[in-house]
Design brief:
The protein folds into 3 domains: about 15-325, no CATH class; about 330-385, no CATH class; about 390-590, Histidine kinase-like ATPase, C-terminal domain (Heat Shock Protein 90), CATH 3.30.565. Helices cover about 50% and strands about 20% of the residues. It has 15 helices and 18 strands. It has a 6-stranded antiparallel β-sheet, sandwiched between helices. A 5-stranded antiparallel β-sheet has the order 8-7-11-10-9, with helices on both faces. A hairpin with a 5-residue loop joins β17 (about 565-570) and β18. The protein is flat, with a radius of gyration of 38 Å.
Length: about 600
């Protein structure tokens, strides 16, 4: 079987001198370029790897230093309470039945000390808690609570400190993963016996600005883990494999990195809390430079290969044309209808063969011309459907609106409108594919509606209903936004009062239904009948008219791509609005 396949593969080169020359020229041109490209890509990847490793090691070092400073500042806040005379005074009076006024004063002083800590620490500290075992008192300070209460049993952090024989822990709040507790024990000075603890409840976002020093990319993962290999903080809510965390915790040294099959992992210790800072970079980011080099080499190789093919064809034509012409003219002449052609000047067998060959060439050219004309007409229609432009009036109005916003609106609102307009242009000109997804169309429509809502303000109410199962189905580009633009131009523009516009996407069995509904002035029965007749009679001609993409254009492109499975229906009544329903097959269907 394998020998038979190899034999069929090399058969064209055994029988044709021209093919041998072409193959030889291609190999001579492509093989050296392929080798050079591969070596250049590998060298680029190694250089990029070295640069990434050195840069990230430096970033990890300084980020760890800054994080350590932040934790040290938090520790200093706790130490400020531990050495406070008010705490010592409260401990000295605990359990003694003295003057009620004295007890109230020491409690008040302790509360004031912790309250001052809470309000002076910044808005990232959302709570302070202190537990003292001998009087079994729990002090809670936060935005909504400020008191001392008696407890029947020591809270859980105290038990952890006792059982693990530790004076300091950092742990996350399981019910609130965006927060963590910095807990330090309160020890008796003489015996170092643990008599309580003090805890700060802190938002992890306190460290986000510091973590940005690492230069987090879109595909990078940065996290903070404890000594037991548990991920305490994962910005972005990404999952981290347990085996990877265990390997990080088992590594020797305060700073380093290692490489897995898919990523580079950098780690660094955070002093003085014993945590670990981890940065995970996918290999794809490092390989991007090599891929760019390979793409460039592929372009050069393709150009060289094309040049080699042209040269090989030219040489083969000069050297083997008589033999090739005679050999090919002998095959299948009886299957071609005779046609009047210019006869050869020769009267011998070669002349007869030339005549037959010319006849064959003419028939093939006619067939190619017919097929090309049919294909060209269809492709031209498809391409014209994609060459739609944003309505220049809409663009002019949008630019004028942005100009006025620059004097009256905050920069963020102005930027949002500019970004929406930019995304609309990008969607129109990028990706030459004829089909997009329903999700992409809805995103394009959302950008258009953001501009319209900014333009018309509270007068325009816009509602969207989406069925997630239908969002990945293919649909011709620029299908929905022209229909909505049509609703503004014909239905809402001359209507007084509030404008309502809704777009709903449903998935039902094998069909995706998209319904665009407005509360505009609607259409008369005669006008509705005329529009429907144009939609039904405009099959296969997706042309634009005027400055806008008409609904006939949309209907034609849907029919062109989906055949009978793609339809557009219109329902309208005077003064009761218009509803346009687009039906396309789920997943693209099987157009005829």
């Amino acid at each position: 079987m394998i020998r038979k396949a190899i034999g069929k593969l090399i058969e064209p080169f055994k029988r044709s001198i021209r093919n041998k020359l072409i193959l030889t020229m291609i190999l001579l041109a492509v093989v050296p370029i392929a080798v050079i490209t591969g070596l250049a890509a590998d060298k680029s990847r190694q250089s990029m790897e070295t640069e990434v490793v050195l840069t990230n090691q430096s970033n990890m070092k300084w980020t760890g230093v800054y994080l350590g400073d932040q934790f040290a500042q938090l520790n200093n806040l706790i130490y400020g309470v531990l050495i406070s005379p008010h705490l010592n005074e409260y401990l000295a009076n605990a359990g003694e039945e003295g003057n009620l006024s004295t007890q109230f004063t020491v409690q008040r002083n302790l509360l004031d000390t912790l309250t001052n800590l809470f309000y002076s620490a910044g808005n990232q500290i959302i709570g302070v808690e202190m537990y003292l075992a001998e009087p079994d008192k729990l002090v809670v300070i936060n935005a909504s609570q400020n008191d001392i209460e008696s407890v029947s049993a020591p809270p859980e952090p105290f038990n952890t400190l006792q059982s693990d024989d530790r004076d300091f822990i950092v742990r996350t709040v399981k019910t609130q993963p965006d927060q963590f507790q910095l807990i330090r024990s309160i020890n008796r000075f003489e015996t170092q016996e643990r008599i309580g603890y003090i805890a700060l409840k802190i938002r992890w976002t306190l460290f986000d600005q510091t973590l940005d020093l690492i230069g987090r990319g879109d595909q990078q993962q940065v996290l903070i883990a404890n000594e037991q290999g548990e991920a305490l903080y994962l910005p972005g809510e990404n999952n981290m494999p347990v085996a990877l965390l265990n390997r990080i915790q088992s590594m020797d040294g305060e700073q380093g990195y290692f490489q897995t099959d898919k990523e580079y992992v950098f780690y660094n210790s955070i002093d003085p809390v014993g945590l670990r800072l981890v940065n995970i970079i996918p290999q794809s980011e490092i390989n991007a430079s090599a891929l760019a080099t390979m793409r460039f080499g592929f372009i050069v190789g393709t150009i060289s290969a094309v040049a080699a093919v042209i040269m090989a064809v030219f040489l083969a034509w000069r050297m083997a044309t008589p033999i090739v012409s005679l050999a090919r003219s002998m095959q299948g002449l009886g299957l071609i209808r005779e046609t009047e052609v210019q006869l050869s000047n020769r009267v011998d067998e070669i002349g007869l063969l030339e005549t037959k060959l010319n006849n064959m060439s003419l028939r093939i050219k006619e067939h190619i011309k017919n097929e090309y004309s049919i294909t060209l007409e269809k492709k031209t229609a498809e391409l014209k459907a994609l060459q739609a432009q944003i309505n220049p009036h809409f663009l002019q109005n949008t630019l004028q609106m942005i100009g006025s916003m620059l004097f009256t609106k905050p920069p963020a609102e102005c930027y949002a409108i500019i970004r929406s307009l930019s995304e609309m242009f990008r969607y129109v000109i990028r990706d030459p594919d004829h089909l997009a997804t329903v999700k992409s169309e809805m995103n394009h429509l959302d950008n258009y509606m953001k501009i319209q809502q900014q333009r018309f303000g509270a007068r325009l109410q816009y509602r969207v209903g989406l069925d997630e199962s239908a969002l990945n189905s293919p649909i011709p580009k620029l299908t929905l936004q022209p229909i909505v633009e049509n609703a503004f131009f014909h239905g809402l523009d001359t209507k007084s009062g509030e404008w309502l516009l809704s777009v709903d996407v449903y998935g039902w069995k094998d069909t995706v239904q998209i319904r665009i509904q407005d509360n505009g002035i609607g259409m008369s029965a005669d006008r509705l009948a005329l529009v429907r007749s144009r939609l039904n009679g405009n099959y296969g001609q997706p042309w634009t008219s005027g400055n806008r993409i008409g609904i006939q254009n949309v209907a034609s492109r849907i029919k062109l791509h989906f055949g009978k499975e793609g339809t557009i229906a219109i329902h309208s009544e005077p003064n009761n609005g218009t509803t346009v329903t687009v039906n396309i097959p789920m997943g693209g269907g099987n157009p005829n």
